[in-house]
Specification:
Two copies of one chain form a homodimer. With 696 residues, the first copy, chain A, is an alpha+beta fold. Chain A contains 14 helices and 39 strands.
């Protein structure tokens, strides 16, 4: 139905009439400045209502975010009223930059920027600038605090930013402020039933508009949670600190960017480069020492209870066992071998109690010197592991020595871990007093993670953080921050109650993955967890995860002996690339299914991954992403006709077809199923003798 | 969340236990036979529960239609119980047939068929066969009554077919049994709030499954409405007749097919050929005398109140005025000129009171002989018009003479009309007694429409029925049944309160258009209705409708003088084809937006049409449908950056680009907007001197 509304002159008359009758009614907020996106898709307006700043966002004439407040609760008084415009400026940027590794090689950064400086009209006369960068597929805005006399240090008790979502929407979200941080199954509820949520939070309106709220460049600040107020209005709620305040900064400083992605398709959120574009450029220079790669490791066996992190009769991280993994990695083209439980401190209750960990020497049954030398001889690299048990200051105390050890041994990538007993890490008071408890997303941990990443970069080491702070695109600035966890991963399929239902991995693509890479550790071809618990997945789906869930380091997480039992399927894991020239979502709906294609950065091959929820699907896909005029051999790894994740997960077909860019395929996915395809140009395939081309 | 359920042995034990405790509980229905679709996507089972037949439909392991009853309420007793299987048979068919005209030239018909003959075990021992044809994208089933001793004539008081939709769904539907038949705006409600609905009715489950219910081959039977019972269970309710019964047939006979289309995407419903495949092949032989074409006519001027159907000072159908339209058609490549109001009977209250219409002679100011000769000389054909005012028997009485007139004059296409005052047509009792009132979808009108179509075919004339019976794909059998109305058309934009909101045309694509072509009469470039009422559309959208809403005859419905005021946009209407080699929905969501591409049957050109609802959209589309290796000139007719159907509908851009099959486009649609594109191979474009190629 068309919306009928009075024409502008009539509206003005009405407003005038109301003012005459009721002069004390508050005036309409006054638009101070506004800015369009380059293609005039989005329009952002900054308003002042009697000195109180707010903003709103329109898309192609529809209001997406209604009048939403801006400002701060500072220790020395609210900074969100009595403000006037001191200055404003606009600029346009259209540049293309290159990623050292990533979902795509070239990223276009095309936005219009509006900067409005606001200052208090009385009192302390504090001031800050609101900076909006508006793209066709979303926007970011942040607060920039210049040096000023009335505010030498900002103690932020709360940020007062709001997001009043106008179209009635469904939300996919996980709760914030809970004990196991971000490791929850996604909830699908009306937006007006959200309580306190992590970001990214993904919304779909009744009319098919997709919106995701998150942040970019979280540096020396507290992570933003979103608390719902009235209706669909979301309020920033900064992650707490043990200090009472949320953030403490000396001026000048910038806050992280608050981001709003907006697209007509679910896939439009995933294909957006907004978060990366809002981060600072590479600060590390030449990073050819960062290695996207696949890896195996001593890991799943512990989650199965077949081996232990702790020393003893079932210890996993022994010299002999690690040598077996190195041999397997060398034979099958994996660069890395992760070994957990290699160092002292695992015996006893280490969860949230990591004060006993020693990161500078191995356990006696793990000959790290010999193993790293043996690995190097076979073209393989050990991957280090630093589980902190949330004793963060204890870890920082050993950090330099620990990293020196790895640098000396050629262990050029390491995994960190922050498993707490109640969701908060331990921080020693600077004066050596009592322990303080800090949240994973608070300012302290934002500082800690970058401290580790910078210390690693100084030694040409790369980091893969588990139980981490949320990803806000800092891999652009620090390309050695390769990957992280930050969601319910594969280990829940070993022992979780329930294990991850099929929709979880689809939900990840449209929520968690908007933030950045995730080390999900796929590829459990045995499809069994601890004590034989069935994993809710078909066999083909485990392969599709390597394309669907992006990470520049991908684990083949199952036991070597299980891979040898499923050689036909394992071949895809051997072949699949991890670093990409380009990536595109072909099709997908939040929580239902997704199909993604990616082009290998080091060959002409393309890879496709498609996964569904608990329902089977028949998805037509056009192969137009292939190079026109080139014939490709498609190696198809699909669900068998009778496959079903509940009753028949191993029904699986590997088959080949010759295809071109003009062809269409019908992907038939079983309930809980998936499909993976490798496309190789026929000439390249012939040159490789019909066998796998370059493996890494 | 994975559904936990007891393993089969446990379930059997539970069932046995319940039977022991409560032996009178009814037994589970017994599956008599089942059949898979060729690709094992759908599975249909026929069940008998103590002699009562039912069926259910599963898709890739999920139940889509739960146990749903089959049978009839016959005048001589219910025929839905005490039944046993007499015989059953299966077969597979995979054939490809050619359409003389249509959305695509070749249609694949690939199904597995199950036939089960059921007979009463006592009493009259009546019997019938249920026939299921199961495709990967849907199914049809019908009842087939053989000759038999216990039933010589079937008087059907109701058909007892049910559709118990299992997944929780949203429905798009229009009410049935209402005064203006099918000319309603679509309602979007939870399926469990549907009352009595027309078909096609379109459903979308929470998990993204799209389902449409309709029927195919409605011949000598009453149209099926759907009445909701408990929950999401829909019951067939046959359109009534004035006789008291719903259908009366002598045996043998077949009912129409009850159809269920099922797809993972909204577009999958539109791309399906199910309805056509379930109709009988072409019964008319060589139909090169049927002419898909574009036309103009004396029509919109009457809806604007600028001219009248009735004779008098403002009479539209005059010799001079028609000559003006013929000249315009000849100059701009239109084959047809429709003239309404050409015959006696329009003066006075003719709505539902058409007894005064004379179909065999023109009004004195309309020289039909001279005009048809003049048209022929200019390569143009008059299009005839038979408004019955619902005096159907009165029309049938003149039918032969009326068609003879057209055949003699070369008027080879005619439009019929059935405008009633209360939703029912008039039928004279066979004995000449009182008038009976019949519904548009009842058995009488099913007979009447085919009587007109067959009489037309005998004279090589083609039919375009307005206020018609619903389309069930009979154009396959009778290709001279070119098009029809059967939904709220463009004239509501002249005088409707409200006019058609933008979502209406999107809804049409995913509901009404599943049945077959619609003569929507697009192209009102003036964007104004009666007394200047704004039409809820941008300019570019009016062009996109020619591709989005399929009909083999398409009107350029606006006044000639308006087209000359918008020459840039009008050029697309001149160029666009009406008969297609192929058609594909690239993208779309019910009620939100749709993008369709079609390939011209008489050139290498492709056309794209995209329309949205009241929201603006940015839609990426891949041009992979284009021939690989060929460069195309894309003539783009799009909304201007400031376009908005409410405030700025005329903001419009026509621009050209060179593109190939490897390119992507971003379609930016304004609120209430659209986009139309013609793709011409560059060599062909050059050969045509950069100007329009073959027009028709």
């Amino acid at each position: 139905m068309p919306r009928m509304r009075p024409s502008p002159p009539l509206r003005m008359l009405l407003a005038a009439a109301l003012l005459c009758i009721a002069p004390l009614l508050r005036a309409e907020p006054k638009t101070v400045a506004s800015v369009d996106s380059p293609g005039k898709v989005l329009q952002v307006a900054l308003q002042l209502d009697d000195g109180k700043p707010s903003y709103r966002v329109q898309r192609l004439g529809d209001t997406v975010i209604g009048e939403s407040r801006l400002g701060f609760q500072l220790r020395d008084g609210r900074l969100d009223r009595d403000l006037a415009v001191l200055a404003q400026a606009m600029r346009s940027v259209d540049e293309t930059w290159e990623q050292p590794w990533g979902e795509r090689r070239y990223v276009r950064n095309h936005y219009n920027e509006l900067r409005v400086e606001l200052g208090e009209r009385s009192g302390l006369r504090r001031r800050f600038t609101v900076v909006f960068r508006v793209y066709d597929d979303g926007l970011g805005f942040r607060y920039s605090f210049p040096q000023q006399a009335g505010l030498r240090e900002a103690i932020i008790d709360e940020e007062l930013t709001e997001f009043d979502i106008v179209p009635e929407a469904t939300a996919w979200w996980i709760p914030a402020g809970e004990p196991i941080h971000s490791e929850y199954l996604y909830r699908q509820t009306p937006l007006n039933q959200v309580a306190l949520a992590h970001t990214p939070i993904t919304l779909r309106s009744r009319d098919g508009l997709h919106i995701a709220l998150h942040e970019a460049a979280l540096v020396d600040y507290a992570g933003m949670w979103l608390r719902r107020g009235d209706g669909q209005r979301l309020h920033a709620q900064l992650s707490p600190s043990a200090q009472g305040w949320k953030v403490k900064r000396s001026l000048p400083f910038d806050t992280p960017w608050r981001t709003v992605q907006i697209a007509d398709h679910a896939g439009g959120l995933v294909d957006s480069n907004l978060i990366l574009n809002l981060n600072e450029p590479n600060a590390l220079g030449d990073v050819r020492w960062v290695h996207p790669a696949k890896y195996v490791g001593v890991w799943w066996s512990m989650h199965l209870n077949q081996e232990t992190w702790a020393t003893g009769p079932k210890h996993g991280a022994t010299t002999a066992n690690t040598r077996r993994y190195i041999d397997f990695a060398a034979a099958h083209g994996f660069r890395g071998v992760l070994v957990e439980g290699w160092n002292p401190g695992w015996n006893g209750e280490w969860f949230g109690n990591g004060g006993g960990f020693d990161f500078t020497r191995p356990t006696p049954d793990f000959d790290i010197e010999a193993l790293s030398a043996y690995a190097a001889k076979r073209g393989v690299h050990l991957i280090g592991h630093h589980e902190t048990g949330c004793a963060v200051q204890h870890y920082e105390d050993q950090l330099d020595a620990a990293l020196e050890l790895y640098a000396r041994l050629g262990v050029d990538t390491f995994k960190t871990g922050y498993v707490c007993d109640d969701g908060q890490v331990d921080r020693r008071n600077a004066a050596g007093g009592p322990l303080w408890r800090e949240w994973h997303d608070g300012q302290f941990m934002a500082q800690h993670h970058l401290k580790v990443v910078r210390a690693a970069a100084a030694r040409h080491l790369s980091v893969n953080a588990h139980e981490p702070i949320k990803d806000t695109g800092l891999r652009r600035t620090y390309p050695n921050w390769l990957s992280r966890e930050g969601a319910r991963g594969m280990e829940y399929n070993a022992w979780g109650q329930p294990p991850n239902p099929p929709e979880h991995e689809v939900n990840l693509v449209f929520t968690r993955m908007l933030a950045g890479p995730m080390d999900y550790t796929p590829g459990i071809l045995s499809l069994k967890g601890r004590d034989g618990q069935p994993i809710p997945s078909t066999l083909a789906r485990q392969l599709a995860l390597y394309v669907a869930i992006y990470s520049p380091i991908q684990m083949a997480a199952d036991l070597p002996e299980h891979y040898l039992q499923h050689r036909d399927a394992f071949r895809f894991i051997e072949d699949v690339a991890v670093d990409w020239d380009d990536s595109r979502v072909l099709d997908g709906e939040v929580g239902d299914y997704v199909t993604i294609v990616r082009k290998d950065r080091h060959s002409r091959d393309w890879y496709l991954g498609s996964i569904t929820d608990e329902h089977g699907r028949v998805l037509p896909v056009s192969l137009s992403f292939l190079e026109p005029g080139v014939r490709y051999r498609a190696e198809i790894y699909r669900d068998g006709d009778a496959a079903n994740y509940r009753s028949n997960p191993f029904d699986f077909v590997r088959e080949q077809r010759e295809v071109g860019s003009g062809d269409d395929l019908q992907l038939k996915l079983a309930p809980g199923g998936g499909q993976a395809i490798r496309f190789t140009p026929v000439d390249a395939a012939a040159a490789a003798g019909g066998n796998s081309a370059a493996r890494r």
